[in-house]
Amino acid sequence: MTDSTSPTTPAKARHQLATPVRVVLYLALAATVAYVVYRGVEVSQARAQLKKAQDKSVVRIGVVEATEKHLAPQYSDKAGRLLADPPADASQLINPDTIEVAYIDDPDADASEVDWQGFQTHLAEVTGKKVNIRTYSNGVDDVAAVKEGKIQVVALHASDTPYLVNNAGFIPVAILENDGNATGHRMDIAVPAASPIHSLSDIRGHTLTCTTPMSVSGYRGAVALLLQDARLRPNVDYFITFSLGMKRSVLGLAQPKGAFEVVSVSDDRLQSQLNKAHIKATDFRIIYQSPVIPRTTIGYVYNLQPGLAAKIQQAIVGFENKGGAVDDTTGKPSRFFPIDYKKDFEFVRKIDDSFDPRLGGKPPKAKETAGAGSARSD
């Protein structure tokens, strides 16, 4: 009688052995895939959290993604001037008995560039109206007064002009110039002579020393430029410190081994230190110089009665300013020179497009950034 159970063949034995091995391998592969997926999600989340933290850090110092800013919805611009058109409804035009003039006052200046008392008398003569004159702080109340037509003529820093144009219907008509040149300055981004930094993109990973949070050429302009032209974000792709003074920033370039890696300063302050021999031309290199940033802009509100607006413009460009401060180079006082806002304020708008100092309610500490309020044009 034969045994009904036949012995296991080698092939069958190998098959029986391979089955659990394959299961183990499949489980191991599945575990590996699951781990890779998990790590991928974890890395992705970490990157998202890092980007969120970086974006928050950038926003905290007032920097916004560069977008071309436009007039507020209540204004029209049919001619493409980037300025508000006068109201189509004649009942919305204003023709005040008294013209209110407000101007930015520079407390650090030895003498005012503009003889504002003389301008007050001149404007009254040209318009035949009473003229009141006062200082302008560019604070919330002053901006609201311009928007509501309670202040009709404004002279302010060029850097604050785009905001007033877009949100309060301000029409800039002239800037101060002297002997054919705009009174203002250029922004210089400079490095020590031996620095390996030769372009804006080379600033990645280095420290930019700025002057003060309120400065345009010493801070805001540089931040906006690096964001737009080099795609470098402050305190993410490079670092920011403050010297708290133009002179400190300039002299830092000349110190042994360079106290500062990169500085942003106004060209007139840099030239001043050169003239005083506090620094030599061989101590530094300028890797970027901006177009001229005008110091003072003057204009009127968009909803003035056209005849009055024309007289005000005539008074502005015709004012001789004989009592204004005399320029050291030309020996002449400055005059108001007509401008084309769309063309002449392109660089100023570029700064405003990327850097909004009105984010946040209170000015932060100097080590952090700029807050709300009027900018310094230096």
Question: Which CATH first-tier class of the domain at 90-184 and 293-344 would you pick?
Answer: Alpha Beta
| Residues in helix, % | 25-40%
- The pLDDT mean sits at 82
CATH superfamily of the domain at 90-184 and 293-344: Periplasmic binding protein-like II
N-to-C CA distance: 113 Å
H/E topology pattern = HEHEHEHEEEEEHEHEHEEEHEHH
Return Rg in Å: 31 Å
**Number of DSSP-assigned strands:** 14
Walk me through what this model shows.
It is a single chain. By secondary structure, the protein is α/β, with parallel strands linked by helices. Among the domains are: 90-184 and 293-344, Periplasmic binding protein-like II (D-Maltodextrin-Binding Protein, domain 2); 187-289, Periplasmic binding protein-like II (D-Maltodextrin-Binding Protein, domain 2, 3-Layer(aba) Sandwich), CATH 3.40.190. It has helices at residues 10-60, 116-127, 140-147, 161-168, 216-230, 246-252, 267-275, 306-318, 341-344, 346-354; strands spanning 98-103, 130-135, 153-157, 170-178, 181-182, 184-185, 187-192, 207-210, 239-242, 262-266, 284-289, 293-294, 296-301, 335-338. The strands form 3 sheets. Strands 1, 2, 3, 4, 5, 13 and 14 form a 7-stranded mixed beta sheet that branches. The protein has a 5-stranded mixed beta sheet with strand order 9-8-10-7-11. The chain is flat and about 115 Å long. Mean pLDDT is 82; it is low at 50-55 and 359-374.
